[in-house]
Amino acid sequence: MKVVALAGGVGGAKLADGLARVLKPAELTIIVNTGDDFSHFGLRICPDLDTVCYTLAGMANPQTGWGRKDETWNVMEHLREIGAPTWFNLGDRDLATHLERTRRLAQGERLSEITRQFCDLWGIQCSVMPMSDDQMETWVETMEAGWIPFQEYFVLHRCELKVKGFEFRGREKARPAPGVMDAIQKADSIIVCPSNPWVSITPIVEVPGIMEEITRSDAIRIAVSPIIQGKTIKGPAAKMYAEMGIQPSATTVARHYSSWIHGFVMDVLDQQERDDVMRLGVEVLLTDTIMTDVEKRVELAQAVLEFSEKLSREIVKS
Ligand code: GDP
Question: ∠192-65-37 over CA atoms, to 5°?
């Protein structure tokens, strides 16, 4: 079974890790959002790509979900001492990733190629690829500060500003990274991880050509809800819906994707919304979706894959 997972950072990485533990390496391709990428101290930082890779390599910080475990913070301490901006946390080990990636990018290497080599070195066997090698940056329109780059909204302002909308700058010139379209064409199943629909999944499918390829493919397309009981486990997705005048719920997420998914996985805690989602013309799997440990990641991955196989059999029959 060939599976493509679309992932952002923390929520996406957890399900991606579950899928990587269930599937054979050649069966899984993870396409990662790079709309959050930015340059800081002259370094190219790719937060979602790094979160996915650190998680798959068993190197992620289990407390935060981002950054590396057993991290030290010497550089940050010294930056603070000399009055440098310290709003974005950069651990010493994590900095090594950004330094080497930036050095290679400056030599003309592609982000997808650098990512593949990091994965090889870190023992990650499935394919992990950025959505694009081109820069396509998520900007957030806020009530208080107008248009600002995503990391300023997310980290500097701690998501406190009110959101009015989003823009993906550089979109017109962005092309899918090598391997992305091929993986989508060959997929039996495309799984939208429980990531932020606005700023983790939308940028991926907005890369010119990707949505067309997804909807052209014969793959079963399934999304997993990042919103449970109207709230996120972490991050601003629910707050973003509310600020744009949309009540946050699992049904809202299902509606967000309903034009292109066949199935929706929502938490058992939201079972009263099941019929509302079914009315959108989407099949529903109710299951425990809160991935508190590795076993839960594996259980959810297995449940999603079985759901995909069931939908595939039903679609073939009808
Ligand atoms: P970010 O780029 O680091 O914010 O990461 P993502 O966009 O991938 O993930 C953020 C989303 O993941 C939030 O909306 C969370 O609610 C969701 N999330 C995190 N952990 C879990 C989990 O265990 N289960 C589910 N269903 N969603 C989760």
Answer: 65
